[in-house]
């Protein structure tokens, strides 16, 4: 899957374009230059195209210190990782010397480069585009992130130039029977060592320096009669000058691996504990509806007593409370400790990920649950749940028909999720609940994740 990066100086409207292309307000948008300080990545699957889109902080080539320096480095990282670059210019401010410097840098990357003149909100504004042709680009795309103007022409050109962006609707069904496992986690958590332990041979470069897995690596193997594919998160083709940005940079590889896997193994360094990036990766796994096992690696390096394991498990539960349904395993890749158990657990989670509940069993439990705990009413009217059905697997997804979907609050949504887990298991997999009225209209639902506690 190709990565497309939006790059440009501060306050040219990159985040507005990002939100328009993604189709929801995900990037923070503000009038003050530099509001987007980090990089924001999202899967886009619209208009017959599928790709990863990255928003970046403003590119300031001359930045020497402070947040501007970080924003510049983030933008350089985006350029190095992306396969396609969208250079965003501002019609209102006109062509500046800063734009010229950025353009020369982007040209030197030798990546496919498209120039977007943003804030072109009407035909009369196109008269202002002449000066931008001074850059020497053959084509300019006059666009408006605010109103969506001109983006259709841009997407058509991208599809024409990059046919691999085009996808058929049924491609996402992933009909393969082979189970794909992705090793996910921050650099130096021991993912490659764990991959070698799983595969039983030294196939991947292992080094104490963070980010030594240079290229994406897939390995197919058999375990207990099952065909498995192991994805070792990579894409860390970093340079020495950006060594401090590895944590941010590696997120791109993690997201790509999540898109391709069935089960994500979130590898946590036992010597460091849970860090912010671990939580971010876990959030992406849940958002994309993949199975999840938390793997605490380097357990051999921890001084232990009879309470150490329980204490650390509780700390992980507290810090990652939105995935309390995910199993936690403590392993040592170096000593091959509990590695076979890890694969067994991944297979168990995959079974839950693909589980289908019979409609009769679901409604029998639904009747028991609603007798004990009715959903909240609204304006004195009792809320009734008539019946439920499971509509899909990978992950398990359920539709419940009710007389008032808007009365189902987050508390009851979470309660019903927990009840389904209590009766049917679903260890290690997110479950999606949809609430509909009798006519089948969707209301009050969030198919991407279960509510946080």
UniProtKB/TrEMBL annotation:
<dbReference type="InterPro" id="IPR015946">
    <property type="entry name" value="KH_dom-like_a/b"/>
</dbReference>
<comment type="similarity">
    <text>Belongs to the TRAFAC class TrmE-Era-EngA-EngB-Septin-like GTPase superfamily. EngA (Der) GTPase family.</text>
</comment>
<feature type="domain" description="EngA-type G">
    <location>
        <begin position="2"/>
        <end position="166"/>
    </location>
</feature>
<protein>
    <recommendedName>
        <fullName>GTPase Der</fullName>
    </recommendedName>
</protein>
<feature type="binding site">
    <location>
        <begin position="118"/>
        <end position="121"/>
    </location>
    <ligand>
        <name>GTP 1</name>
    </ligand>
</feature>
<feature type="binding site">
    <location>
        <begin position="185"/>
        <end position="192"/>
    </location>
    <ligand>
        <name>GTP 2</name>
    </ligand>
</feature>
<dbReference type="GO" id="GO:0042254">
    <property type="term" value="P:ribosome biogenesis"/>
</dbReference>
<keyword id="KW-0547">Nucleotide-binding</keyword>
<dbReference type="Pfam" id="PF14714">
    <property type="entry name" value="KH_dom-like"/>
</dbReference>
<comment type="function">
    <text>GTPase that plays an essential role in the late steps of ribosome biogenesis.</text>
</comment>
<dbReference type="InterPro" id="IPR027417">
    <property type="entry name" value="P-loop_NTPase"/>
</dbReference>
<keyword id="KW-0677">Repeat</keyword>
<dbReference type="InterPro" id="IPR006073">
    <property type="entry name" value="GTP-bd"/>
</dbReference>
<comment type="subunit">
    <text>Associates with the 50S ribosomal subunit.</text>
</comment>
<dbReference type="Pfam" id="PF01926">
    <property type="entry name" value="MMR_HSR1"/>
</dbReference>
<dbReference type="InterPro" id="IPR016484">
    <property type="entry name" value="GTPase_Der"/>
</dbReference>
<keyword id="KW-0690">Ribosome biogenesis</keyword>
<keyword id="KW-0342">GTP-binding</keyword>
<feature type="binding site">
    <location>
        <begin position="8"/>
        <end position="15"/>
    </location>
    <ligand>
        <name>GTP 1</name>
    </ligand>
</feature>
<dbReference type="InterPro" id="IPR005225">
    <property type="entry name" value="Small_GTP-bd"/>
</dbReference>
<dbReference type="InterPro" id="IPR031166">
    <property type="entry name" value="G_ENGA"/>
</dbReference>
<feature type="binding site">
    <location>
        <begin position="232"/>
        <end position="236"/>
    </location>
    <ligand>
        <name>GTP 2</name>
    </ligand>
</feature>
<feature type="binding site">
    <location>
        <begin position="297"/>
        <end position="300"/>
    </location>
    <ligand>
        <name>GTP 2</name>
    </ligand>
</feature>
<feature type="domain" description="EngA-type G">
    <location>
        <begin position="179"/>
        <end position="354"/>
    </location>
</feature>
<dbReference type="GO" id="GO:0005525">
    <property type="term" value="F:GTP binding"/>
</dbReference>
<dbReference type="InterPro" id="IPR032859">
    <property type="entry name" value="KH_dom-like"/>
</dbReference>
<feature type="binding site">
    <location>
        <begin position="55"/>
        <end position="59"/>
    </location>
    <ligand>
        <name>GTP 1</name>
    </ligand>
</feature>
């Amino acid at each position: 899957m190709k990565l497309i990066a939006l790059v440009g100086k501060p306050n040219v409207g990159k985040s507005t374009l990002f939100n328009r292309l993604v189709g929801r307000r995900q990037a923070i948008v503000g009038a003050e230059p530099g509001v987007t300080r980090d990089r924001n990545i999202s899967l886009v699957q619209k208009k017959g195209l599928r790709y990863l889109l990255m928003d970046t902080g403003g590119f300031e080539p001359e930045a020497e210190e402070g947040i501007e320096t970080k924003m510049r480095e983030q933008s350089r990282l985006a350029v190095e990782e992306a396969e396609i670059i969208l250079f965003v210019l501002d019609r209102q401010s006109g062509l500046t010397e800063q734009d010229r410097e950025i353009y020369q840098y982007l040209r030197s990357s030798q990546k496919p480069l498209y120039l977007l003149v943003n804030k072109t909100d009407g035909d009369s504004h196109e008269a202002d585009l002449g000066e931008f042709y001074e850059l020497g680009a053959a084509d300019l795309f006059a666009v408006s992130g605010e109103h969506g103007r001109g983006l259709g022409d841009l997407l058509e050109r991208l599809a024409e130039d990059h046919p691999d962006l085009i996808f058929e609707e049924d491609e996402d069904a992933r009909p393969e029977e082979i189970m794909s496992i992705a090793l996910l986690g921050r650099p130096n958590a021991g993912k490659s060592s764990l991959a070698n332990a799983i595969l039983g041979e030294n196939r991947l470069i292992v080094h104490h320096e963070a980010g030594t897995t240079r290229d994406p690596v897939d390995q197919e193997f058999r375990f207990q009669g099952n065909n498995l594919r192991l994805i070792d998160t990579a894409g860390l083709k970093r340079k020495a000058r950006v060594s401090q940005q590895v944590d941010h940079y590696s997120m791109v590889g993690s997201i790509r691996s999540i898109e391709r896997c069935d089960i994500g193994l979130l590898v946590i360094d036992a010597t460091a504990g849970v860090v912010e990036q671990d939580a971010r990766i876990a959030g992406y796994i849940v958002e994309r509806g993949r199975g999840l096992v938390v793997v605490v690696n380097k357990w051999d390096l921890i001084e232990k007593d009879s309470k150490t394991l329980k204490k650390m498990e509780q700390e992980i539960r507290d810090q990652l409370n939105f995935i309390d349904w995910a199993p936690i395993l403590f392993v040592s890749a170096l000593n091959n400790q509990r590695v076979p158990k890890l694969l067994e657990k991944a297979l168990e989670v995959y079974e839950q990920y693909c589980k289908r509940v019979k409609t009769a069993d679901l409604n029998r439990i639904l009747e028991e649950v609603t007798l004990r705990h009715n959903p909240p009413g609204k304006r004195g009217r009792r809320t009734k749940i008539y019946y439920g059905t499971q509509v899909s697997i990978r992950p398990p997804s359920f539709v419940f028909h009710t007389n008032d979907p808007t009365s189902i609050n987050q508390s009851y949504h979470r309660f019903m999720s927990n009840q389904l887990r209590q009766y049917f298991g679903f260890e290690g997999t997110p479950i999606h609940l949809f609430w509909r009225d009798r006519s089948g209209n969707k209301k009050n639902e969030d198919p991407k994740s279960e509510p946080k506690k």
